[in-house]
Amino acid sequence: MENDGLELRAINTIRFLAVDAVQKAKSGHPGTPMGLAPLSYLLWTRYLRYNPANPDWPGRDRFVLSCGHASMLLYALLHLTGFEVSLEDLRQFRQWGSRTPGHPEAGHTPGVEVTTGPLGQGLGNAVGMAMASRLLAQRFNRPGHEVVAHRVVALCSDGDLMEGVAAEAASLAGFHRLGNLTAFYDDNRITIEGSTDLAFRDDTAARFRAYGWDVLTVRNGNTDLEGMSAAIEAAFAQKERPTLVVVRTAIGYGSPNKQNTADAHGSPLGEAEVALAKERLGWPASPGFLVPDDVLAHFREALPRGERLEREWRLAFAEYAGKYPDLAMEWERRMWGDLPEGWAEAIPTFSPEAGAAATRSASHKVLNAIAAKIPELAGGSADLAPSTETHIGSGGEFLPDAPPGGRNFHFGVREHGMGAVLNGMARHGGVIPYGATFFIFTDYMRPSMRLAALMRCRVVYVLTHDSVGLGEDGPTHQPVEHLASLRAMPNLHVVRPADANETAAAWRMALERTEGPTAIVLTRQKIPVLPPERVFRDGGVFRGAYVLSEAPGGAPDVLLLASGSEVAVALAAKELLAGEGVAARVVSMPCWERFEEQDAAYRESVLPPQVAARVSVEAGSTFGWERYAGRRGASIGIDRFGASAPAERIFRELGITPEAVRDRAKSVLDVVKGGQGS
Question: Which residues are tagged catalytic?
Fold first, then answer.
């Protein structure tokens, strides 16, 4: 293969589209696209299966740019190969409303599979995609009929492989021997601060071999197209384990003064250096954003090629559907994201007569009931399934040597990696993933949860041991600020059910939600079961907040607002207040986000503006409750860390009791009445 002529000009087109866009925006990362252009050119013109006219074709390979700061590399490729990314979009790089934001965003730019930027996340997403595709292959493929046969490809940087989330995900990938996964490591040895010698001298190849990966090396990623082609072909031929291809490149390749320096990493080259780089690589100084006609025609061969690949896949699928019509219908339904008809009929209800129950235990019963109806529901925990009660009893195990089709994943003690993997599974399609851990350990997976919300991933988080109510494990394991923290995250629905029946409702809300993730926050301790006819009356529970127990005559003196286990405390406080002639309404508020989506008339029917006496009660930070308690209301909560003791003692010592709620309600009512009389 000659490294000259059309190929070299095509590679330089990628380089200088990136350089010109960064220079015009006066911000961005030009160096990595300059170094990775040859590898990317080969992948996108010779090896990847995709159709620019239909970016979501399910038979495509998945390409993940884990080093999202090199976004202009991807945008240039998308434009050149014929996706709906125009040259004008490239000129508007990093500008308001453009299709080319600073880091790739899934659902915003056609052809972008996942939202990357925080380093390491993309590799974790790619592992999740590879796991999802294996699960789907085991479900749908039949001898002679491979519906699922695509590859997952990731480009990673030094920074990606420094981040712990990448290590967690890579370890899991090696354990599962994900032979359909290939990661290309851009070994340019430069980060923002300078040489990686400042902080990173790992033998990366040895580390990944220890994880169980096959490792290949390309010593010259700048000009050795034949060596890179051979490595790609060997990696794609590997079926027994994931492959890491270490590609040694020069960041800012072609820049006379900034190649192999940190100056090429996160800042424009500067007008003078851009001119020098173009001169060195034989590229016209003007005009900017140059795409020669023959180069564009060469890249646009991807359009007929993609149409042919998709047509062949769809013809094969039609043959498959004729032989396996039920499986074909299930495939189509799952890839559209639709739930099976009648699935919600499997959701159990719970009777108070059965006795108190921890909501984690109720969740286990609900999960197993609906999993029997929803085959795409799959997931697991970060080594905590016995405690989070998230094992699907008849689901089988997803393990490298287990019988195929297992839906129970074992993520190990890897919360952050689990979060990134869940996002990749969701973005792949065909799977509704859930992941479980103790609520406190969302501290270890919050970045992945945030990206799930940003990507609008349909992910369910099952978060147990939700408060100081977990008791003796003490403050290290007792979440206090976590509800407030997650409620602050846009597009994440946080559901903290008050009992077993609200838990059933929480699962329904989570599975019916297609535009973002849901966190179901559950108790370890047993709490009373509410009458189902009150929980489900008029569907109020599905609106995020509802009147659980009305004041006599429907005219409350005071509103008692609560979520989770503290709803029972509020109900008991209501009875105490009634004994003293105070009429209280108890409002259960399992999901603030859904409540805020309701119209003003409904919200005011639940929280009448004329009732200023309000008390919220929740075993967590009071931060945020002022929105509902109001200026003259009060919030009972825990604005300190917890303690190691039995749950009952902790609640008593910290004032989360019916008596404390009664006393605060009376004092608030006195203040309100006093203010009305002044």
Answer: 415
